[in-house]
């Protein structure tokens, strides 16, 4: 079965065409600036030099997806000869609230439920829904599956997801911790069990999805029991531009002192904070590391603070699960940040973690990076959310 995986943003669209007979990626592409001047589509095919590029106006996601379908049947850079070979479409959807704990075949009822969650993900869910509607219009009759960032975390117990707020705020508005990056945490935890040759039901795993957006999950027996992101992706770790955990009383204090309204303080926490706000340099960790190596104190403090927050979550989740068998690093910083992984994993021998510094000198390659005598295995596993979405899609469609 050939599955088209779509990840729609508000003005962008990432996609892959995957042959699920052997899980081979047939082609991969990116559409940018949908609805904006300068719309462009770029597609690549493994083993073929160059790129398939289309530069033309794309007013909306339906126009963009029409061009995607043209691209995937291109004789040189495409993955199929006829669009009828695409037997299913898997959609990444950010927020399903408490409505879905697993991936589902998309129906009118499912789409209505996703629209009800727009308040919880106003930047993401509308774009995801636009992608679904566009595919329904262009590929009538082709089954579609929704794979949700929040679904993997729906196994959290109430003690993990309820806030210390009046309970009526949960019952009226759904104010609780949901967690995100669930597809990534699910993929790397399953892959870690495979690499270790053990049944995931027998393992306690801490997965660290460390990128510009970052989250950590405690996975006990294959099920998420806690995660660092909360009601929104703001909670948890210090990130590229997000502040992560802070004293909530800071918000009204700053609103009064700086004369900020709710939208302005929200923008400050989400877009002007994190390592970018701490340094004034960049949200890109490579830029922060370069500055730190050149003696910038604020840059070094930001890196130290980032690593310290990750350490705190690893320690707390090990306590919560009464042990840990493996710690996994993934996503942009987790996969490529050699120095950052060392900062996080160093001085953790009390927990049974021993990093092999030579094995750690690698970027973006699947590898065990702990010493042979490390009680807790440390793994580097590049995430593959698209493959996870395709697998769920095939399982449901079949």
TrEMBL record:
Pfam families: Acetate_kinase (PF00871). The active site is at residue 149. Its EC number is 2.7.2.1. Its cofactor is Mg(2+); Mn(2+). It is an enzyme of class 2 (transferase). It catalyses: acetate + ATP = acetyl phosphate + ADP. Pathway: Metabolic intermediate biosynthesis; acetyl-CoA biosynthesis; acetyl-CoA from acetate: step 1/2. Catalyzes the formation of acetyl phosphate from acetate and ATP. Can also catalyze the reverse reaction. This is Acetate kinase. The lineage of its organism: Bacteria, Bacillati, Bacillota, Clostridia, Peptostreptococcales.
